[in-house]
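Dear H.,

Thanks for agreeing to be a second pair of eyes. The structure we're designing against is below in token form, covering all 128 positions.
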């Protein structure tokens, strides 16, 4: 049985609407999975809205695209965050017992110690 042009166009419109509904359901399901992963990992969900403006997100998502790449990216980020190495402290403040790893910006107590004529060697934990 062959369809007339009018019937074929009507069928196509119905299929397009059905595809749009399925894509919206898939997107909502993905969003729930991502939110669940973020909550389990302890991340603040508000960080996602600040990373990429919504207009850019909408422009990059193609209709019918599976969102597995985004899920894998988030899972990788969560695994990386969980296994991030904790640095051992290298310096200790003798007054407050605050510590510093020696990486990044110096703590105020380290700067104050140097301004008072001390050296960082005085603050070393292991003076081997």
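And this is the sequence the design step returned. I haven't edited it by hand at all.
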């Amino acid at each position: 049985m062959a369809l007339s042009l009018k019937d074929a166009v009507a069928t196509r419109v119905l299929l397009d609407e059905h595809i749009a509904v399925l894509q919206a359901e898939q997107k909502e399901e993905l969003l729930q999975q991502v939110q669940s992963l973020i909550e389990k990992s302890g991340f603040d969900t508000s960080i996602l809205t600040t990373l990429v403006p919504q207009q850019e997100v909408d422009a990059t998502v193609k209709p019918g695209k599976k969102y597995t790449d985004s899920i894998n990216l988030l899972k990788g980020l969560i695994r990386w965050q969980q296994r991030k190495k904790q640095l051992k402290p290298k310096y200790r403040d003798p007054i407050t017992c605050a510590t510093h790893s020696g990486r990044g910006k110096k703590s105020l107590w380290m700067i104050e110690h140097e301004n008072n004529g001390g050296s960082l060697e005085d603050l070393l934990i292991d003076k081997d």
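Two observations from my side: The longest strand covers residues 91-92. The two ends are 90 Å apart (CA to CA).

Warmly,
E.
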